[in-house]
Amino acid sequence: MIPVNTPVKHRRDLRKLINLKAMMAEAEAASGLGLVLVDACRTNPFSERLTRQIGRNIGGRGLARVEDTPGNVMVGFAAKDGEIALDGSGGNSPYAKALIAHLPQKNLEVRHLLGKVRDSVLQTTRQQQKPFTYGTLGGELWYLAGTQTGGVVEPVAEQTPRVQPVAQTRNRQSFEPEMVKIPGKNYEMGKHEVTFAQWDACVAAGGCSHKPDDEGWGREDRPVINVSWNDIQEYIKWLNKSTGKRYRLPTEEEWELAARAGSQADYPWGTNEIDCSRADYWQDGKSCHGRGTSEVGSFPAYGGLHDTVGNVWEWTSTADEGLRVLRGGSWNNKPWNVRSANRNRNNPTNRNNIVGFRLSRTP
Fold first, then answer.
1. Where is region (Disordered) located (predicted)?
2. One CATH from 3.10.20.600, 3.40.50.800, 3.40.50.1460, 3.60.21.10 for 11-143
């Protein structure tokens, strides 16, 4: 990384740069959580000049992804690999403004906090810049600004006893799904598919016995995959006990009504045409994302719901000849199979990397 206002005109000036791996090593030495936040543009303005001087390509737009993060270290970047960050207007960048807004907030677990920072930057930049987090954490919960009851300023790890309702030990909004009221109906649907971060909270609390594999694509804000219909019943039981609310899987009819967003066309945006700016599906021999699932909310919402087209098939509560109905299609399906009207079925014990779920709720 190149510090601000550092002149880089010759090969010897490369000694002035900061090695990110060295920073991660310092963070790993922390007694608990290691957090590295990098507000860097992720572009190299000197790449052409240095390529000529050094005789090899040292990288250009977007730079590479962060690999091999140490255990219990997270690295937050202003933009994901392959993309650049914007300067914005005023004295701070969009990423810095979002961090300033959210870091002081109490009752925000660090993964939820970074998710809110991401959402703020996406909104501010009109989807042009997507912050990205590398690395994974264990089951400990970390509140950078403490909690309302504890008032602790230092990062605090909080352990939850087995099967103890999480609502008693931390802010339940950090793992509860955001819901959308379906107009004219007495039920709500999840704005997003349930994520790995939300599922992992259940595992950490002892409410879920199955920890699904993420296929190496990442966890956090990606939709949870490799969970069976039966696994989900365990998750719902824990969530309802923790929140005192009535979450469930939607019926097939509820799912389609909500997913169509008032449209009778093939897709909820009102046409029979589809492209990779609207959904993650299979095109030209790969998913639109390029590698498995996309993070939830990566594509526009229709009727208030994200990713009802593609990304992952979604379990419903509807039974059909001993099987359970799936809707929505996945990143591995061609356009015909991700239409709002399309359906599939699966054995309730099966786990698959193209299948996840979203919840509904009766108020």
1. 336-363
2. 3.40.50.1460
